[in-house]
Amino acid sequence: MAISLGIKACMEGYKVLFNTVPIFINKLKECKSNRTLRAYQNKFEKYDLVILDEFGYISSDKEGAELLFTNLSLRTGRKSTIVTTNLSFDRWGEVFIDPVMTAAMTDRLAHKSYLVNMNGNSYRLKETQEWLKEKIK
Question: Total domain count for the chain?
Fold first, then answer.
């Protein structure tokens, strides 16, 4: 669903960034160590829509969590952001470690937001099962 919204936004002329959270955090750390973080933040702020996928699959260290928090906070109330995750808000502390930062991040992301809770069977599993049926024939 997030990818579809991103494609639609691109087709409407909006500037969109799609990335996984782990890759995004690595990019932020790299920019920080290269002293190019501010330039990247200026570019990041210009995207009309940012889609960050796979939040919580990989835990982050304190620096990564702080960089993610800081950069998502730059967009709060000004630009659109989609974060996909399999974690409920009550488990975000496992990723951010710091309970104060966790509360602040969930507060910022949930404020004036659409929260879409998707439960159901995996499309990947369904496609794999159909693919296997075709291969066995």
Answer: 1
Q: What percent of the chain has pLDDT over 70?
A: 100
Whole-prediction pTM value?
0.84
At 58, the amino acid letter reads: I
Q: What residues contact 43, with CB distance under 8 A and at least 6 apart?
A: none
Task: Please determine, for residue 123, whether its predicted confidence score (pLDDT) is greater than 80.
Answer: no
- Look-up: residue for tokens 């499309």? 123
> Domain containing 85: what range?
2-136
- The enclosing H or E element of 53 equals strand 49-55
Output the domain CATH number for residue 70. 3.40.50.300
Closest to 69 in 3D by CA, of 98, 48, 30: 98
How many Å apart are CA 50 and CA 78, to the nearest integer? 12
